[in-house]
Amino acid sequence: xxxxxxxxxxxxxxxxxxxxxxxxxxxxxxxxxxxxxxxxxxxxxxxxxxxxxxxxxxxxxxxxxxxxxxxxxxxxxxxxxxxxxxxxxxxxxxxxxxxxxxxxxxxxxxxxxxxxxxxxxxxxxxxxxxxxxxxxxxxxxxxxxxxxxxxxxxxxxxxx
Length: 160
Prior knowledge:
By secondary structure, the chain is an alpha+beta fold. It has helices at 41-52, 75-84, 105-113, 151-159; strands at 8-10, 16-18, 26-32, 57-63, 128-131, 137-141.
């Protein structure tokens, strides 16, 4: 059986990131885009990260351009839009696909482990996957679910 810790992804800066470094942490993995109507959720995600990072929460942003071409830029452009404009300090990965034949293996795993209500595909930017300390996916949140609405789920995962 796979866990999140079995995967590797590249950081926005192109460095290999072995997700096993997060063993024992709770992760919120989010596919992001910087030109989306939901982009202001970066502020809420950053607020969650600041409030819970010392308690064991890691937020992992994964830029994706598969939805209405809302993340068209390169790493430098993405860095300027999300890290600078929204003060994002949580880890952000390279731009990846979350659906289709080129979907990153991490998202293939997450979609299977925490299916959506209308199938496994990621429906839009800012779909959120909560992963427990054991590396197993707990649940998926819709793109429109604001970060502040999942505090209770995060706290329960941190307490488990």
